[in-house]
Structures are given as structure tokens and as C-alpha cells.
Amino acid sequence: MAFEKKVAYYTERVSSCLDRALPPVERTPERLHEAMRYAVLNGGKRIRPLLIYATGECLGVDEARLDPAAVAIELIHAFSLVHDDLPAMDDDDLRRGMPTVHRQYDEATAILAADALQPLAFTVLSTAESLNDREKVRIIGIIGEACGSLGMTGGQSIDLASEGRAISEQDLQLMHGLKTGALIRASVMSACCLANGISDARSAALRHFSECLGLAFQIRDDILDVEGNTDVIGKQAGADLKKSKATWPALFGIEESRRRCAELLDAGLASLEVYGKSADPLRWLARYIVDRPM
Predict the structure, then answer these.
(1) Are 53 and 17 in contact (CB under 8 A)?
(2) Are 220 and 265 within 8 A, CB to CB?
(3) Radius of gyration, alpha carbons of the chain
(4) Which percentage of the chain shows pLDDT scores above 70?
(5) Cα–Cα distances in angstroms (integers) from residue 133 to residues 46, 123, 169, in the given order
(6) Among the four given CATH numbers 1.20.1250.20, 1.10.600.10, 3.40.50.980, 2.30.110.10, the one describing domain 3-288
(7) What is the distance between the alpha carbons of residues 91 and 88, in angstroms, rounded to a whole number?
(8) What is the pTM of this model?
(9) What is the pLDDT along the chain (294 residues), one digit of tens a residue?
(10) DSSP string of the chain?
């Protein structure tokens, strides 16, 4: 079956796993648990878990062994969004077409909810019965690095420091590679850890694919902020311009941003040639990510 026809299945699968992993709202502290569930279960395309499942299909990994990484990555992603939306960060009021967590609840609850989601991700991995100890350690290391100062937290720091400043293409690419690309790379490489007998060359091909896709994803996000519709993209369009954010369109223009996005997509897809048709799920998902609607 084509991966496109399995997206709804995988989305529902990881959402069910997330529902089971999150504490119930009836358990004390109720308000904190309600906010955690609101942050995670209020929609979203589940792009990062889908990348894990698509990579798993490419490498022949059983989906049940992919579930812990898919859940952990999405919990980390949700944690990062709650923090990014705070008034001290990007000060956003809308996420996935709904009020951000600090608007729905309050700042303190939002901070605590995000703080609780991060360790929950690693608890899910460390207690996963479908993984052996070596696999757990490797995936925890990959995801831990992706969300730290050498990953998305570092990228957010550079992003905040760059507001209102003209930065070089090299610095912008570094920022995007950390803030957005690191978790996308971690999604692909986490699934790669679970494959039997994969060579270094094939692993490097997937890593290059994920790095190209991560940068293309963020450039597309920058374009959507300029041209997208708030009701479609689920967050306030034009926010980057209003805050004088360093983005690809702001530095290089829309047409150059589109050209660079297409170039990165082509380079990423070329990396998958070594996998033949088995990489078709990743090819479809990469095109979907880069061409997602405005």
C-alpha cells in the first residue's frame, strides 16, 4: 500500500500511543496534566512520527518497535512548541488553530507542562519493552542531543539573538539546522538505529536526506509565514515579519527561497537512490512536507 494511504493510520496510531503515555487528567495535579494533554493532543500533522514510520518502512523495521521513538519525538516537539510560544520567546497566541498553552491556561502552567513533557519522552524510551538496552541508549542519545544546546534549544537561542539583525546565509542555515533540522534528523536516525545490518554508507545517505529535508522544511515554513493563510497554517501568518525575524525570504526573497527549497528537496531525494523503491515512503513524505498547503 502506498504510504500516502497509510498516513491516517500512522497518525492515529501515534496519537493513541501518546494518549496512553500521557497522565490522565483525573490524576493529581489535574490542571498540569490537562495542560500537557492539551499541548500534545490538540491536532498537528505528526510530521516527525511519520518520518519515523516512513524510515521504518524503508528499512523493514516493525512498526511496534518504532512506536516508542515516535511518541518520544512528538513529546519533545510539543515541549518545544509550548516554550517557543511563551511571551519571553516568540509570544504567539495561536498554535494549530487553537490558543497557545499559556493563553488557554497561564504562563506558569505552560512552563510546567512543557517541563513535564520533556522527561516523559525519555521515560517512554527507557521503559519501552520492544527495545533492547543498546537501542534505548542510542535513541536517547540521538534525541537528547537534538533537543539540547547543540540542537533545537541552541537554535532558538540563535533565533532570539538574531531578531532585527541581518545575518549571513551560513549563520541562518546553522540556526535552521539546529532549531528545526535537528529533530527531523533525529526522527530519521532513531528509526535507523533499529534496522539490522545497515551499512555506514546507507546510514549516511539517510542522514544527508534528513539534513536536506530539515532545512527545506524550515524554508517552506518561512515562505508560509509570508504567503500562507492563518486558517490553513494554524498560526498567525506574518508573525516573523512583525518580529523582524531572520528568515530565508527576509534575507533572500521569496523566489530565491523557493529555488533553494526545491534544490534541497532534490538533493535529499538523490540521497535515497541507494534504497531503490523501498524509500518511496520517504520520497512521498518529503514532497508532502515541502509542498504542504498555504
Answers:
(1) no
(2) no
(3) 18
(4) 94
(5) 26, 13, 41
(6) 1.10.600.10
(7) 6
(8) 0.94
(9) 799 999 999 999 999 999 999 999 999 999 999 999 999 999 899 999 999 999 999 999 999 999 999 999 999 999 999 999 999 999 999 998 899 999 999 999 999 999 999 999 999 999 999 999 999 999 999 999 999 999 999 999 999 998 888 889 999 999 999 999 999 999 999 999 999 889 999 999 999 999 999 999 999 999 988 886 666 556 666 666 677 788 999 889 999 999 999 999 999 999 999 999 999 999 999 999 998 765
(10) --GGGGHHHHHHHHHHHHHHHSPPTTSSSHHHHHHHHHHHHS----HHHHHHHHHHHHHT--HHHHHHHHHHHHHHHHHHHHHHHSTTTT--SEETTEE-HHHHS-HHHHHHHHHHHHHHHHHHHHT-TTS-HHHHHHHHHHHHHHHSTTTHHHHHHHHHHHTTS---HHHHHHHHIIIIIHHHHHHHHHHHTTSSS--HHHHHHHHHHHHHHHHHHHHHHHHHHHH--HHHHSS-TTHHHHTT---HHHHH-HHHHHHHHHHHHHHHHHHGGGGGGGGHHHHHHHHHHHT---
Name the residue with cell 525570504. Answer: 249
Q: What are the extents of the domains in the chain?
A: 3-288
